[in-house]
């Protein structure tokens, strides 16, 4: 991201604050869709492919991960390139602060649909014995193409939950042009009955200070604006995922915590 682009985004947000406006985004109806990829034969097989989709809101996102084992022994397989991709465009700024009155978004400011993105599916030539899961949120016309042989693809309806800079309770943030400014003060989400995957990103990757800890998975993962900004983890059983701490800054990521349940 260029310095000029960053300054433009900050100026746009500052103008809204100075005007005393607290507009709320006119969001498209959210949905989650996904795919489960398994090997056609019981042999280790590399995987390569691409997911193409159009974003329909500022919360459009995709997560990809692989797991080995089953039930309480299910674990993330990091030989697969675990991926979180966010994109999309806001049609109107969104303010997350109970102290500020909301201003409705006029009809002309609906979120632009059709922001295209390609997300690569890869194990970097490493052979996998695991199952690969791909979950997408708020996307249109998704097309998944697997170019490596030996994989079977079936559709999946994932359970997707998220804490964003626009809905994190107790926080004070403004989001516009897929960029947020303000203070995040923690949050939590439940995981599913058969386990879940979690992806976390602190909203201070452009600049900021503070720290938070991701818990609910294999261990506690400290993160900070000065060091580690993102983390993923998995839990093989029902859990409560938390990103606890306080972070003040400017960031491009709008999803502070994404949780996707494992299927049975």
Task: Characterise the protein shown here.
A hairpin with a 5-residue loop joins strand 16 and strand 17. Strands 6, 12, 13, 14, 16, 17 and 19 form a seven-stranded antiparallel β-sheet that branches. Strands 1, 3, 4, 5, 8 and 10 form a six-stranded antiparallel β-sheet that branches. The chain has a four-stranded antiparallel β-sheet with strand order 11-20-15-18, with no helix packed on it. With 264 residues, the chain is mainly beta. The relative contact order is 0.22.
Layout of helices and strands, plus pairs?
Blueprint: H1 3-18, E1 32-39, E2 48-55, E3 61-68, E4 75-76, E5 83-86, E6 94-96, E7 115-122, E8 131-137, E9 139-146, E10 151-156, E11 160-164, E12 172-176, E13 179-184, E14 187-190, E15 196-201, E16 207-215, E17 221-224, E18 230-235, E19 240-251, E20 255-261
Q: Give the number of helices.
A: 1
User: What percentage of residues falls in helices of 4 or more residues?
Assistant: under 10%
The major pleated sheet works out as: 7 strands, antiparallel
Measured on Cα atoms, how large is the radius of gyration?
A: 19 Å
List how many beta strands DSSP finds. 20
Question: What coarse outline follows from CA principal-axis ratios?
Answer: globular
Look at the helices and sheets and give the structural class: mainly beta
Chain-averaged pLDDT: 87
Order of helices and strands: HEEEEEEEEEEEEEEEEEEEE
Strand-residue proportion:
over 45%
| Separation, N- and C-terminal Cα atoms | 40 Å
| Unreliable segments of 5+ consecutive residues | 1-30
């Amino acid at each position: 991201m260029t310095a000029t682009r960053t300054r433009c985004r900050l100026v746009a947000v500052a103008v809204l604050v100075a005007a005393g406006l607290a507009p709320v985004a006119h969001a498209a109806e959210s949905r989650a869709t996904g795919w489960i990829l398994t090997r056609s034969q019981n042999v280790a097989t590399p995987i390569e492919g691409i997911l193409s989709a159009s974003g329909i809101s500022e919360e459009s996102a995709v997560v990809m991960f692989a797991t080995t084992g089953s039930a309480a022994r299910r674990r993330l397989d990091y030989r697969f390139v675990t991926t979180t991709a966010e994109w999309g465009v806001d049609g109107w700024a969104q303010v997350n602060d109970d102290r500020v009155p909301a201003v409705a978004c006029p009809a002309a400011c609906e979120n632009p649909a059709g922001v295209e993105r390609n997300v690569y599916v890869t194990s970097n030539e490493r052979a996998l014995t695991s199952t690969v899961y791909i979950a997408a949120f708020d996307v249109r016309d998704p097309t998944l193409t697997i170019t490596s042989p030996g994989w079977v693809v079936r559709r999946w309806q994932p359970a997707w939950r998220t804490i964003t800079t626009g809905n994190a309770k107790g926080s004070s943030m403004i989001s516009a042009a897929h960029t947020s400014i303000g203070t995040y003060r923690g949050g939590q989400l439940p995981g599913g009955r058969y386990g879940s995957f979690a992806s976390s990103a602190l909203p201070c990757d452009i600049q900021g200070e503070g720290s938070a800890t991701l818990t609910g998975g294999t261990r506690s993962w400290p993160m900070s604006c000065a060091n580690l900004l993102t983390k993923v983890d998995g839990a093989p059983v029902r859990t409560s995922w938390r990103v606890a701490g306080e972070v003040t800054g400017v960031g491009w990521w709008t999803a502070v915590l994404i949780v996707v349940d494992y299927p049975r």
